[in-house]
């Protein structure tokens, strides 16, 4: 009798409750979306008639003292506002790990010294968020208290994953931290075994203050200062760079119009309300593991120097970027996963996001040493068919043309900036449905973020320190994507990691998928 009640009563009741909660969530998200449209479009057109970044004339926020008025910097940009809202749900927190080989031992005192000097040199590190006229503004912190600690662990990636959950104090700061990671081995034994001392530095940043370009400039400064301190030399104390004005917002306001923004908004809303229709070709074969706690996990791959050199040479010959070749491989790897479960599939569509450095749309004079979060996302769809796997470079050229069109011929990432804050509602929706172990709303299969050749940005070898490896990750588990691909080249090697989201993709699936991508890239190079 109990078994019959379980099958006939509880299961339908569970399905009813699940559907009801999902329906209620959609109703709430629709209300949020209406608010987003009004706010995003209104701000876009108001800025054409007034200076959005002018200081307001009325009084300060009640939680701030009038005497601190000189500390106010400017309002947050479209993307900065989104990043700030997203962190409330545990998203948009970035972590970088640098593996170090040093000639002399490093202690926490040296690392704290380096952190304080770097903080004084780089203006964006000195900021926190306050409110004026109920709007978020950047303000300079009154305190120089920093978050620097030492931890002991053999597993640096585990430290990265744990610190993707780091809690930042928005109004007090700091919005960044440093962790010196030591392993359990005695330092003298370590030196005798490796002829150097081995450490890792893990840096964390709230994404609203810094993007990849800014973070690599930070890493460069920090390592150079630490090297000087180890040598006993006085570091260069000159200020480095500027906290940039969001010039991309002004360009977006000039180029966007009301009809385009309304159309784009309803496209976003439709995707959000469809609860995963854009990725159902994957999720119907690989159901979302909604029972898992939502978080971001990392799997790392490296391609050796010889293979990387041949791959880059082949990309140049085929007139495509490594980013386009990687995106093509990611599409084909996903198609291979799908076709293993759906053997009758002949072609499908892969929906993607490409992270774009918005400085590309600035004047050349404004670009150097401009710090802050100056990025956006480019939403692109790619068709992929069975025969594309046998004509990889032809397919990669098609992918390259589509990306180039979206970047330059019709700069979609720029035009959609006024609605950047829309995604905070999607993140909020996904946060709440995860609490009920319900499927999240996803409209893209993956996001790609590519930093290019880090050897052009980071001085990896200094007199006392060699940076042997770099990894980076972003917490994005409530974003409307299933995973993120992070890549760069460093010391001549292609470094790639997949950030997969535990309530959307199983570890075994992420392992298989990322391995497929690397294998496709390797197999695309002619055998020597």
Automatic annotation (TrEMBL):
<dbReference type="InterPro" id="IPR052058">
    <property type="entry name" value="Alcohol_O-acetyltransferase"/>
</dbReference>
<dbReference type="Pfam" id="PF07247">
    <property type="entry name" value="AATase"/>
</dbReference>
<dbReference type="InterPro" id="IPR010828">
    <property type="entry name" value="Atf2/Sli1-like"/>
</dbReference>
<protein>
    <submittedName>
        <fullName>Uncharacterized protein</fullName>
    </submittedName>
</protein>
<dbReference type="InterPro" id="IPR023213">
    <property type="entry name" value="CAT-like_dom_sf"/>
</dbReference>
């Amino acid at each position: 009798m109990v078994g019959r009640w379980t099958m006939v009563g509880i299961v339908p009741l569970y399905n009813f409750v699940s559907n009801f909660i999902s329906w209620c969530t959609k109703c709430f998200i629709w209300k949020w979306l209406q608010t987003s449209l009004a706010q995003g479009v209104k701000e876009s057109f108001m800025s054409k008639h007034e200076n959005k970044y002018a200081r307001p004339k009325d009084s300060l926020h009640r939680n701030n003292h009038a005497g601190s008025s000189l500390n106010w910097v400017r309002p947050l940009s479209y993307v900065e506002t989104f990043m700030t809202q997203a962190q409330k749900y545990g998203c948009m927190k970035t972590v970088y790990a640098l593996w170090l080989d040093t000639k002399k031992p490093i202690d926490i005192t040296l690392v704290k010294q380096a952190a304080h000097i770097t903080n004084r040199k780089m203006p964006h590190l000195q900021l926190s968020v306050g409110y004026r006229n109920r709007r978020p503004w950047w303000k300079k912190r009154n305190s120089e208290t920093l978050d620097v600690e030492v931890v002991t662990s053999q597993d640096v990636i585990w430290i990265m994953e744990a610190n993707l959950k780091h809690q930042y104090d928005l109004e007090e700061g700091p919005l960044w931290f440093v962790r010196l990671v030591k392993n359990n081995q005695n330092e003298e034994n370590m030196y005798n075994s490796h002829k150097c001392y081995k450490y890792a530095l893990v840096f964390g940043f709230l994404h609203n203050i810094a993007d990849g370009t800014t973070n690599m400039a930070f890493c460069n400064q920090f390592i150079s200062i630490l090297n000087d301190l180890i040598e006993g030399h006085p570091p260069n104390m000159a200020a480095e760079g500027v906290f940039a004005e969001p010039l991309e917002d002004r360009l977006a306001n000039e180029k966007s119009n009301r009809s385009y923004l309304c159309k784009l908004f309803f496209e976003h809303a439709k995707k959000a309300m469809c609860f995963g229709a854009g990725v159902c070709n994957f999720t119907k074969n690989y159901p979302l593991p909604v029972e898992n706690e939502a978080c971001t996990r990392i799997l790392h791959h490296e391609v050796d120097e010889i293979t990387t050199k041949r791959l880059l040479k082949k990309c140049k010959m085929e007139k495509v970027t490594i980013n386009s070749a990687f995106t093509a491989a990611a599409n084909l790897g996903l198609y291979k996963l799908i076709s293993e479960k759906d053997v009758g599939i002949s072609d499908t569509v892969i929906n993607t996001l490409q992270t774009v450095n918005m400085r590309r749309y600035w004047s050349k004079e404004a670009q150097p040493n401009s710090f802050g979060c100056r990025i956006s996302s480019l939403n692109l769809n790619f068709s992929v068919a069975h025969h594309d796997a046998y004509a990889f470079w032809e397919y990669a050229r098609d992918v390259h043309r589509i990306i180039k069109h979206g970047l330059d011929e019709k700069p979609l990432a720029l035009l959609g900036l006024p609605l950047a804050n829309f995604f905070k509602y999607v993140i909020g929706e996904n946060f709440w449905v995860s609490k009920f172990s319900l499927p999240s709303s996803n409209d893209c299969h993956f996001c790609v973020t590519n930093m290019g050749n880090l050897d052009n940005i980071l001085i990896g070898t200094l007199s006392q320190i060699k940076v042997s490896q770099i990894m980076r990750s972003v917490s994005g588990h409530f974003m409307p994507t299933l995973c993120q691909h992070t890549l760069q080249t460093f010391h001549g090697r292609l470094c790639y990691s997949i950030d997969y989201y535990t309530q959307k993709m199983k570890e075994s699936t992420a392992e298989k998928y990322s391995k497929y991508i690397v294998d496709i890239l390797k197999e695309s190079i002619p055998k020597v």
